[in-house]
């Protein structure tokens, strides 16, 4: 694979926003999308404007409004293909890539990943319903979550997906709900492998002090319990060590731990055949980020599983992984319209946009870093340092600290990069702002995939008792 070009940033900041582009090589499929700041199809057109998927971003805002999520279909499909093809190269056993849809679950995204031969990981009844409505095959749906309700478990049983069991209550509830059902319900067991990785505390999930999964000390009791449950078919084990990880060593360590538990499960005569190693590969949010490529990540996973199995003379299991952020994060940008500004002499300049923490809560939640560009003038020198703030009534509603931008004016289109993961999916109606629209672009065509909410949508679920109506008259 062609290596990703490094981004050299002068001490005073980027010279122009054009340096955020991947490169001018037309062979974009050779670039690992998670290592790019902008979607693979991003270009500067002859009007000096940012173009994605053959569509002028400024024109897209004129057509669909602002704020606007712009998803590049080619980047998402390239990620899907790179994962799938890398597993074919490096793993001689059976493998399945499933999309961690909590990153962004909607009909269009589910349909795209399904058409690329992926399965899907869901964590709620709503995500499960959406996946099925998008046409996902139940045999490729895996249902996660540490506190699934009885109704969600019943829904999963009826659909026939694989349920990733997280705790004793869930296991006991499933035993009860499956009584009298002729077809055994497929389950996997999630356990905490005790592997630390360097990421934000909120997205560490593999260490022992975690709300997710069975503790290792309880696994033999779980295996023993399952030997007496004919309605539950334990097909595999699952572990996930965290998100936005740049290190490969934790992923080298995980397989040997999982193979050890896999062998133990076999001794209990469980029909175990799959190992799900989770996901967690990070993406480039800023020029300082240096994540491994998709191919490098897959290679480490495959070689480590293969080596661990060879050491204990075990045949290769079906290998499952569940990337989310690394598949879709860099495929999307959010376009905002610039509004007011405020300069505090000797301190900072606030530049305000027409969205903020309601469409991207990650900066205020995780202190996440982003980069931005002015889509109207991509070659303009980056001479200004500003704080990009949202419009919400919250002092912490800041999208980017110390953003390097050209001089701006009200009405400019500011594009924030890398917003495909955990932006729309974590969005809210704080201050009763309607959620933005989302479009997918490809080869000059733009299609709506999520309609912009209206004020009527905001009150659709509101109920006003008659006695209160009288008080208002």
Automatic annotation (TrEMBL):
CDD domains in the cross-refs: PLPDE_III_DapDC (cd06828)
Active site: 393
Family annotation (Pfam families): Orn_Arg_deC_N
InterPro entries reported in the protein's UniProt record: Ala_racemase/Decarboxylase_C, DAP_deCOOHase_LysA, De-COase2_CS, De-COase2_N, Orn/DAP/Arg_de-COase, PLP-binding_barrel
GO MF annotation terms: diaminopimelate decarboxylase activity; pyridoxal phosphate binding
Entry binding sites for pyridoxal 5'-phosphate: 280, 322-325, 422
Keyword Transmembrane carried by entry: no
Residues carrying N6-(pyridoxal phosphate)lysine: 102
Gene Ontology BP term (one): lysine biosynthetic process via diaminopimelate
Pathway(s): Amino-acid biosynthesis; L-lysine biosynthesis via DAP pathway; L-lysine from DL-2,6-diaminopimelate: step 1/1
Entry binding sites for substrate: 325, 362, 366, 394, 422
Residue span(s) of domain Orn/DAP/Arg decarboxylase 2 N-terminal: 76-327
Reported cofactor(s): pyridoxal 5'-phosphate
Superkingdom in the source lineage: Bacteria
Family listed: Belongs to the Orn/Lys/Arg decarboxylase class-II family. LysA subfamily.
Record note on quaternary structure: Homodimer.
Role, per record: Specifically catalyzes the decarboxylation of meso-diaminopimelate (meso-DAP) to L-lysine.
Protein name: Diaminopimelate decarboxylase
Annotated source species: Zarconia navalis LEGE 11467
Gene assigned in the entry: lysA
